[in-house]
Amino acid sequence: MTQSQVQEQADARNKIALVTGAGSGIGKATARKLLANGYSVVLTGRRQAPLDALADEARERGEDAFALACDVTDAASVASLFDAIRLRYGRLDMLFNNAGRNAPPVEIDQMELDDWRSVVDTNLTGVFLCTRAAFAMMKTQTPQGGRIINNGSISAHAPRPLSIAYTATKHAITGLTKSVSLDGRPYDIVCGQIDIGNAATEMAERMARGVPQANGAIAVEPLMDVDYVADAVLHMANLPLSANVQFMTIMASKMPFVGRG
Known about the structure:
Elements: H1 3-12, E1 16-20, H2 25-36, E2 40-44, H3 48-60, E3 65-67, H4 75-89, E4 94-97, H5 113-140, E5 146-151, H6 164-183, E6 189-197, H7 205-209, E7 211-212, E8 218-219, H8 226-238, E9 247-251
Parallel strand pairs: 1-2, 1-4, 2-3, 4-5, 5-6, 6-9
Antiparallel strand pairs: 7-8
């Protein structure tokens, strides 16, 4: 470990982070990375069991993990989560808005309204609810301030075929990120976005089997180790509040993003 890494880990001690969608994929990898680097991490997601398993794993290593299920689409559930964070830790230093979902890949005229609403409720309203609660806590805690990192997507820049709900919400996240970044300035609340392309998780397994391209072809797409994403989030989280990664794109080098369409 380099001297700078040692210092970063020391600076992270006693910092409290909340990771949504922590039970699997990018959220799980990022929670592990934060825990290993000195953060106390609140793990949340829809299902309690995988959160408990991750928290037990962390405690075996002497790390501080707090697992609590939450439905980010439900305002009362989010309020209860933040009440629990306030009671246990008294503050929140970093929120990683990671929880998200997709809809079936169908033509626009075939999309069910319930599927549309489910994606919007999770990917956009859920981020708003968690951000609203985090902003309120960070604004009033001592010392004031904190960091919010939103999981955008390559789809915040260019859509995949048959992805209107997911793409629309990820474009909206970019606007939300900019607004929070601006509105948080008086309170030392910073907000950035990480746009991820083809991390090797359960959600991206279909890429290795072949997925539709803009030209109508089906093609296998390269994947990258999800740990690289966790490293990137850790880098963003470890910055002092006087500095911010506003937008970061991390992707498998050979995935068809540059030149898509």
